[in-house]
Amino acid sequence: MTEDELPGSQALRRAVDEQEPLLVGPALSDVLRVRIRRTVRSTRDLIDVSDSARARELAARTIAWLAESVGAYLRLPTPFAHGHSPQGGHAPVLVLVDQLDLLGLTLDHAYDAAHRGDEEELDRQLQVIVDRFATRTSPVELVEDDAISAEDLDQEVVQDQGLEVGDDGIPRVPVPEQPDPNHEVLDASRPDPASKETP
């Protein structure tokens, strides 16, 4: 994002204020709500402490990620979001908790760097946001347009999050890779022919 494309501090503050009510609504459990409020508050603090391009880009990307990730999560049926654990993974609510904790820590480091005027460290924290909290939604569009609710999300955004729900209201989870239906099952009581030694 070039400096000319970056929204100003006032536009960012307005975007945070518009987005917050959609992010902390009653559909969310307290374990998520407290983390989202912390993230929103930290984003405001970062905007207040620094008007640098890096700080503004970091704040804009954070707002966009929150809008997408929380919005995609809200489209899931609550029992599924809280209780379903894909094979080898965690329930969606726990995944989002972990992401919000990391995002909150990143914002704390960014605030500290901005307060000290350490642009190099601020740039490192911005790179964490770019790498770990990428979005399809343009941060610039999010700031310039109306706040994004869960219903406004593009379907590809929801698929990226792995949180797609079908028209029947049933979540679509990735199907594990299936074994080859034509593979030969070896009888454990008989030796593997491939292992025979050639005379």
Largest sheet: 2 strands, antiparallel
What percent of the residues sit in helical stretches (DSSP H or I)? 55-70%
What Rg do the Cα atoms give? 22 Å
Proportion in β-strands: under 5%
Spans of at least 5 consecutive residues whose pLDDT stays below 50 are: none
- The span between the termini is 68 Å
Physical arrangement of strands within the biggest beta sheet: 1-2
Number of domains: 1
Number of strands: 2
Write up what this structure looks like.
The chain is mainly α and 199 residues long. The chain has one domain (9-195). It has eight helices and two strands; from the N terminus they run ααααααααββ. The chain is globular and about 45 Å long. The N and C termini lie far apart (68 Å). The model has no long low-confidence stretch (mean pLDDT 76).
Could you give a quick summary of the protein structure above?
Helix content is 57%, strand content 2%. The chain is built from eight helices and two strands, in the order ααααααααββ.
Write the layout of secondary structure elements.
Elements: H1 9-23, H2 30-49, H3 53-74, H4 78-83, H5 92-116, H6 119-132, H7 139-144, H8 155-160, E1 164-165, E2 171-172
Antiparallel strand pairs: 1-2
Helix pairs in contact: 1-2, 1-3, 2-3, 2-5, 3-5, 3-6, 5-6
Please name the defining characteristics of this protein:
2 strands; mainly alpha; two-stranded antiparallel ribbon; 2% strand; 199 residues
